[in-house]
Write a structure and sequence with these properties.
The chain is an alpha+beta fold. Helix content is 51%, strand content 19%. The radius of gyration is 48 Å and the shape is rod-shaped.
């Protein structure tokens, strides 16, 4: 049902002034003069009838009956002045009405071309006025919206927010809220402001609403937040880089220089066992430094986007065995059992160099945190992911110290700068695990970790077979 109002708020309809009213307004002084003259004549005739009880025009005396003629003339003059002032007043009223109409047309022109939703709702939350923007956003004509309840036009979430805001406006406060709305099948972020109209007794007469599409602004905010996050990552990367150079890369050289200096100056004074101990320390320092530099260079290339994915057919069984062989001396020294449960060849198509780096770092990390007499096991199985794609799942399990959940969350975040000491005082930068995650993702896989404090950890990565 269409609600009609005596307020021509929109200025969309304006009836022309009737011709009869226009003639009366323009010729008021003349019409009033004729009417006055007629009334005065009737008065004069009435006086004559009362005086002579008849009308005898032959007995008319110019001097004696002059006042009978003056009465109509006087009435006509008075009526002329009355008509003049009446017409002038009507002109002012008409000019004011015309000005109001033009102002309404101007407001309507402005409102209809603003890129915001503008409406007026009565206390029942029924639309009394909406601008043309409603047609563009909702695809419904203005005539079909005006008179309808808000719940019949907007979505349920928006209506509940409007109704909730309306109940808070009894004290006359302006309330704003933001939410998502669907316009023509697309989601938009909208900022809505409700302004109550109060009566003389502070009762709510209606609500003036303005709703603006802030999707572009919100998207920019999200983009800025993402850029800030990326910038924070770059700063953390830079800090990590300089931390490695300043601390982790210098410390091994201190050991190298110290033991080599001792051997250079006092080689003959040491017995064979001492010299062998110093040479072993130099070898371990050089080996650890080489591993650190290798990871550092790989990480630098990864940050610069220079590491490419070059797939080839890889025998996972031989790749794992080759890596385990590299740690024979180290596990013998720590009295650790290092074994592979993959006894048969398993072929997949992936980047050999990237996966080789991942396996080497995970095994090295497991040995580092496994105490004497412990065990490190590498296994591989065929699985299917959520899309029924064939995957290879490789796990490196140790019987080390394990970690609490809060430490697990920090392993792959470079900004956390998390690292810990091994069972024999081995130091690290935490860079190896970060590289493993990046390289596994480069191979379209995923790396995960499960750890129980006091029982050990299991690092698992899954990559597609093809």
């Amino acid at each position: 049902m269409r609600i009609k109002t005596n307020l021509n708020f929109t200025g969309r309809k304006h009836d022309d002034e009737p011709f009869s009213e226009k003639m009366i307004r323009i010729n008021a002084r003349y019409l009033f003069s004729i009417i006055g003259f007629g009334i005065g004549g009737l008065i004069s005739v009435g006086i004559l009838v009362l005086e002579d009880d008849k009308i005898d025009l032959t007995d008319f005396s110019y001097h004696s009956d002059l006042y009978h003629l003056s009465i109509p003339i006087l009435c006509a003059l008075l009526a002329t002045f009355g008509g003049f002032f009446f017409g002038k007043k009507q002109d002012k009223n008409q000019a004011a009405i015309q000005k109001l109409f033009l102002n309404q047309q101007l407001l309507n022109l402005i409102f209809d071309n603003l890129p915001v939703l503008i409406s007026y709702l009565n206390p029942e939350l029924r639309y009394i006025y909406v601008n043309k923007t409603y047609e563009n956003w909702y695809g419904i004509s203005v005539e079909d919206i005006e008179g309808k309840l808000a719940k019949d036009i907007v979505d349920e979430e928006t209506f509940n927010l409007i109704r909730k805001s309306a109940t808070k406006q009894l004290n006359g406060e302006t309330i704003s809220f933001e939410n998502e709305r669907i316009f023509k099948g697309e989601r938009h972020f909208v900022h809505t402001t409700l302004i109550p109209q109060l009566g003389l007794n502070n009762e709510v007469l209606g609500y003036f609403t303005v709703a603006a599409d802030i999707s572009e602004l919100r998207n920019r905010e999200i983009q800025i937040a993402e850029q800030n996050l990326e910038l924070a990552g770059l700063i953390a990367t830079k800090d990590k880089f300089f931390s490695i150079i300043a601390h982790d890369l210098i410390n091994p050289f201190t050991s190298l220089l110290g033991f080599s200096e001792l051997l250079f100056h006092d080689f003959e004074t040491y017995d064979e066992k001492t010299r062998k101990t110093y040479i072993e320390a130099i070898f371990e320092s050089a080996h650890n430094t080489f591993k650190l530099l290798e990871n550092l260079l790989s990480w630098a290339r990864s940050q610069q986007g220079k590491i490419e994915y070059n797939p080839s057919v890889v025998n996972l069984h031989s790749l794992i065995d080759d890596n385990l062989t590299l740690f024979n001396q180290l596990v013998h020294k720590k009295n650790i059992l290092l074994e592979s449960k993959l006894e048969e060849d398993m072929f997949l198509t992936t980047d050999r160099d990237l996966i080789n780096t991942v396996i080497r770092n995970l095994v090295s990390n497991a040995i580092k945190f496994t105490p004497e007499g412990g065990k490190v096991t590498v296994s591989a199985n065929l699985i299917s992911n959520d899309h029924n794609d064939s995957m290879v799942e490789v796990s490196v399990m140790d019987t080390g110290f394990g970690m609490v959940a809060s430490h697990v969350d920090k392993l792959f975040r470079i900004e956390s700068n998390y690292s810990s000491t091994g069972t024999q005082g081995e130091t690290g930068t935490g860079l190896g695990l970060i590289l493993c995650k990046e390289f596994v993702e480069k191979c379209n896989g995923k790396l995960s970790v499960k750890s129980v404090l006091g029982k050990g950890s299991v690092f698992t990565f899954a990559i597609p077979i093809k």
